[in-house]
Design a protein that fits this description.
209 residues; mainly beta; 8-stranded antiparallel β-sheet; 5-stranded antiparallel β-sheet; 14% helix
Length: 209
């Protein structure tokens, strides 16, 4: 680190406009706090005690790393990427609805101790169980800010998944064109084509041949 006694106008502006206050706690007790800011064009990161006139330029020896990115994050970055929080003990069934293929809509329910697709004469339970396993482990690529997904308000979802739990709670995932989805009408998700392809399996995919 390099120590500077005075802030230049540009660095002072960085602290004022983009600075982040970092706080360290031991339990509920505040141990230390400082402010971080950066200049991305120069890949320079600055630390200072809160509102102090002097600052430090921070580096990791041997690495040209823009350290400020460690602090300039949003709550979405820290989200658990697993989309559906359920396991087999609290899972009671699911419903899948396709806007362009309503004949492929299906509902999964427990019958005689096995999960089946309702109203199918015979369900390929091996394929269905593989599908349910994959859905239970489905992960987003990232959670995104709602402002980035405002265009979804005027688009019909390609597919809707409703996960039903024993408690009666329902988790809903609406998947849209452009690799975006909305979870429970409030969390916006980015998800790649490979994962989306899994969700496109319709009713006919589970017919026992």
């Amino acid at each position: 680190k390099r120590r500077f006694r005075e802030l230049s106008d540009s660095i002072a502006s960085s602290f004022q406009k983009e600075g982040v206050t970092v706080k360290f706690f031991e339990g509920t007790k505040l141990i230390r706090s400082f402010q971080a800011a950066g200049n991305q064009s120069k890949h320079e990161t600055y630390f200072r005690d809160v509102d102090a006139p002097e600052f430090f330029q921070m580096t990791i020896p041997g690495y040209r790393t823009y350290l400020f990115t460690l602090f300039d994050t949003t709550p979405e970055i820290w989200r658990e990427l697993r989309i559906f929080d359920f396991n087999w003990r609290n899972f009671s069934g699911m419903e899948v609805l396709f806007s362009a293929r309503p004949d492929e809509n299906f509902e999964v329910a427990l019958e005689d101790g096995f999960f089946v697709v309702k109203d199918l004469k015979a369900t390929d339970t091996t394929r269905l169980n593989s599908y349910l396993d994959a859905v239970s482990l489905l992960k987003a690529d990232s959670f995104i800010k709602s402002q980035q997904a405002d265009n979804l308000n005027n688009i019909a979802p390609g597919v809707i998944l409703k996960i039903k739990q024993v408690s009666g709670a329902v988790q809903e995932l609406r998947v849209f064109p452009g690799n975006q989805a909305v979870l429970n009408q409030k969390d916006y998700i980015s998800i790649n084509d490979r994962k989306l392809k899994l969700l496109m399996a319709g009713r006919s995919a589970f017919m026992q041949k």
